Amino acid sequence: MAVPRSHPRRESLLVREKLVRGLERGLVAREGLMAHGRGEAFDYLLGEATGRHARKALRAAAAVLLLAERPIISVNGNVAALCAAEAVRLARAARARMEVNTFYGDGGRRARIAAELERRGARGVLGANPESRGRLAGTSRSRGAADKEGILAADVVVVPLEDGDRTSALKAAGKQVITFDLNPLSRTARTADITIVDNITRGMDELARLCREYSARGAPALSRIVRNFDNGANLAACIREMTAGLRRQWIA
Amino acid sequence: MAVPRSHPRRESLLVREKLVRGLERGLVAREGLMAHGRGEAFDYLLGEATGRHARKALRAAAAVLLLAERPIISVNGNVAALCAAEAVRLARAARARMEVNTFYGDGGRRARIAAELERRGARGVLGANPESRGRLAGTSRSRGAADKEGILAADVVVVPLEDGDRTSALKAAGKQVITFDLNPLSRTARTADITIVDNITRGMDELARLCREYSARGAPALSRIVRNFDNGANLAACIREMTAGLRRQWIA
Q: Which positions in this protein are listed as binding ATP (chains A, B) (predicted)?
């Protein structure tokens, strides 16, 4: 259905339509729609803008990606539906490979997500080939799938919108974990090394841009950015931003 | 898929499954899954419990319902999937009729929701019969449908999880509006006369119980409860509860 140009929630409604189309196209899981709604609520508290603390996390994430030996960008159904092109640009800017990861049942969803990424210019997308499929230690059979050449071999993984158990398993496997999570209280947000509390529809492209901007910097300068970032302190600051947002929007 | 008994988010996962089954059964709209996610996030900030301020709103709502001449309980897809039996109990306790209201496209959804309510013991459910269908002034053709014998003739309407435009149209039509909305900042929350900031899976049955408890009280006692309730002040208190929840859960 057409969203009127004048609608006060137009942007948000258009994003919802993208996800519904993603469900129809077999990219998105039904549970992904609920997860999106949770993110929307937290984004609303942020004023639907990339805040100062998200920017700090984005800069640290770009530095970690450029310092990585084998970085991977993990893509699930919601990421594919909302920002496949941006994720492909990020992979290019960070010289990272891409891997499809689905949390909820498969039924061909992995292959469709990989095809969507390739349609947007990705090459050699991992995660859809059962022959190189391994498993993350400490996860259940159905939910721990990871590619032997991808996540299992990576040193740095970008896992936007990830499940808490999987994030813990990635950390236990010695990976550096970068995530996008609008809920600063989630287990993923607290477990990751760098948590970008931002909407992927805004933050993914910004991360790609920062990777390009920083690409000429040397390892010492990049390491300095990483050392100066404290994920716990940054999450606490995001929570303060949200409580202020709750009050501000009530008065508005 | 089976949710393990030990899972820390078991209750929440079981509710999600109910909604997904509701989608499969043609009761729930896909947009309803996203709306549920938004509610989950706010409920999380409330500590997933019915707070003091929700209880205050529930008591005022029970009093308003018992004082009403022609109360109506409006039921959409999410309500039907999550608490159809509770909504039927509320209608019985409040001597209210029930009306099906869907915000997103129809395609038989109204009839299926009515059938679900009747399966749970409701009689004479309105809103599924095109012959008595009218329209709320000030709403678009597709989204303003309301039954001439139901909402259009009612003095008090309970509209859980309602859209902001429709809530405004109900107020403009002179109705007293009671809503359940976990987002205290939403237009519906701010427009309704009584906003119960609580999860319908907890609050609906509690409202029915309060209607039974108050049923022997006279009009003066009930009116006193209503007069002592201030929706704006109560919403502000809910927001304070949520900001405290954000901080508490961060420390936990």
A: 16, 38, 181-183, 187-188, 199-200
Question: Is A67 inside any structural domain?
Answer: yes
> Is the separation of the CB atoms in B102 and B76 below 8 Å?
yes
| Residue among A12, A247, B48, B164 nearest A20 (CA) | A12
| pLDDT reported for residue B140 | 76
Q: Yes or no: say if B148 and B134 are a contact pair by the CB < 8 Å rule.
A: yes
- Contact A16/A69 with Cβ under 8 angstroms? no
Q: What is the predicted pLDDT for the residue at B3? A: 67
The answer to whether position B30 is within a domain reads no
ipTM of the complex: 0.91
Three-state DSSP class for A212? helix
Instruction: Specify if B14 maps to a domain.
Output: no
Cβ-based contacts of A42 with chain B (< 8 Å): 41
The CATH number assigned to the domain holding A65 equals 3.40.50.12640
* Structural domain boundaries enclosing A193: 52-243
Chain A, 155 to 214: residues with Cβ < 8 Å from chain B are 183-185
For residues B111 and B109, what is the distance between their CA atoms, to the nearest angstrom?
Answer: 5
pTM of the model: 0.92
